[in-house]
Amino acid sequence: MLDFSILIPYFRDFVQALGLTLALSLSGFAISSVLAALLLPARMSSVAILRRLTWLYVEVLRNIPVLLVLYVVFFALPQIGIKTESWVAAIVALSFNSTAYLVEIYRGGLNSIPQGRYEAAAALNLNSFTLWTRILLPEALRTAYPAIGNQLVACVLGSSLAVLIGAGELTGLAYMVGASTFRYFETFLTVAIVYIVIVQVINFCWGKLGAQIIARNTSRRL
Amino acid sequence: MPTVESIQDAGVLRVATLTGDAPWVSVGADGDQEGFDVDLAHALAEKLGVEVEFTTVDGPGRVASLQSKKVDLTIGEFSTTPERDEVIDFSNDYILNPGQYMVVADSGIQTSEDLNDESMVACIQQGGTSTDLVPADIPNVGTLFLPSTDDCLEALKSGQAHAMTQNPFYYLPLMDKDPGAFKILDGTFGTNHIAVGLQEGSTELAAFVNDFLVEYQKAGKIDATFEKWFGFEMPTEARP
Amino acid sequence: MTSVIDYTELFLTAVVYTIALSVMSIIGGTLVGVVFGFLSARRLEAPHWFRAARVFIDIYVRIFRSVPPLVLMFLLYFGVSAAMNLSISMTAAVVLALTLFVGAYQSENIRAGVESVPRGQAEASAALGLGIFSRMRYVEARPTFAVALPSMVGQWVVTIKDTSLASGIGVVEATTIALTVRQATGETWLVFLVLGVTYFLINRGVALLGSVLEKRISRSTSRAQSRAALV
Question: Which residue range or ranges hold the ABC transmembrane type-1 domain (chain C) (predicted)?
């Protein structure tokens, strides 16, 4: 018989674990958004060595499991003196991974801008600062926006791997509660539902935010 | 419910065991399970006249695979606890296993009281009995829960944790292999009673397993395999 | 100490198992994606029951894109079997979890592909009296796959990477064996390097296969288009 009441004593733990899940995924996403923006000029650079190095980074990180990145950060890096706690290791691994995807997403956004924009800007005598901040970046952002949102969701899902290095986020807590109550079904089903809710909320907010950004950009240009 | 007869009809004994918990059980270079508990499972199967089919699980999987009837028995450094006893059955104990802390030799940690501090981290195998025993013994220690004992060893070596929370039987072969690297602290944090896990209600099979365990002990086989895997004579306090 | 070399055969066997898990999950995810993607696409002149199917598929997609595959594996392996008295083997739990998870993404990829087919073609096929399934087969399939294939291949790579999560429930695949070897030999860096290179090569291989498929499809699409233009 299903009995969800066994989870009640763990309510506070679940709230805490939810906080940690959000902290891990949001910081992983935030850090990788910035890192990817920093790597983007190198990825699109005319200097071959920069381009190749960033290409290599992106290819490697996109083709090996996040779990392996996590293990390297948590178990291998300490051997060369870089020691981190579980939650830090989780953020670092998530950021490294997510950066690789975001660089490509940003690049896709910029590449989608038609050549005509540049020519029109030249004809209007726009300086390059105005060109980038007013025209190119907003347009690239609009194209890339949904994919960036998907990457945020990927960070939330990816944070669940932290259970395997012992961070007590949602999946980790579920694992512990399951092991001490032997009620795996109730526990993991509950946690699955929590993840579904988180992701729906994120999708909703991301959509709203996007609509606002696009509205603002459009009105400013008019 | 598996019975002696149903197992003999099937020709296989389905046993859940751990992945990385040498010398109790681990995967050898040939890909087969090996270790103290693996020998015990093979001897039991021999008495039944069947083959063993191992399923490797993590700590919590030892209970879950019995609950879900995926296996007939669990043999893998499996401690009896009252909570587990509510959902599955146990044979008699075949070995007693004191919980002890192991630290890195030059860490400066001398007693378990040194560990009882927020700046210290004890690594605990998820779903193992140390989950409750360690916080009861040293409530202030920080805890790191990892899926397998081997993960904890790795965490200890890399400095992610200051202490392991296993038993001397796990530690001693390691200390043999790597003399001077580790140190076991004096005192224990409780004794684990290691037994064979069975599906709830397998009374008849439990009786068979208990008979087998008596023979295994009387014939001195348990001592021989203990020495083979752990590298020292089985201490008297380990006998149930 | 044992040397890493002693474990070569064991590791290769585990890699084969990783590949087997991947192939089964990729087939599962792609099938779910193709069926659900074609059924849920918004298009002109579709039968009414498609709307009901779309509601159901939308819910499926929303749910399974939101649950971490590791949680799905735990739920299926520990949970469902204990609660429902239904024995799901470890391998089945992994393949099913990945099929459901990746299937949701593939379904979206395919749907976007179908919806990119120009409206005129729908009108034309309706005028020709083609049934919906013939329309999928003869009109929509080729342009859909031409559009969706790159993102589908992306999901194949995700599937392969996610089989590593099977180590979390104790399946003896490449990652689990790598951890065993790490423990037995103490060669953390070397073992992780080998494991990383292994996944990298498998995934690059799949990406390569994907680009060959893409070329084929786009060639046959352009051939079909030029034939159509001639007619």
Answer: 15-210
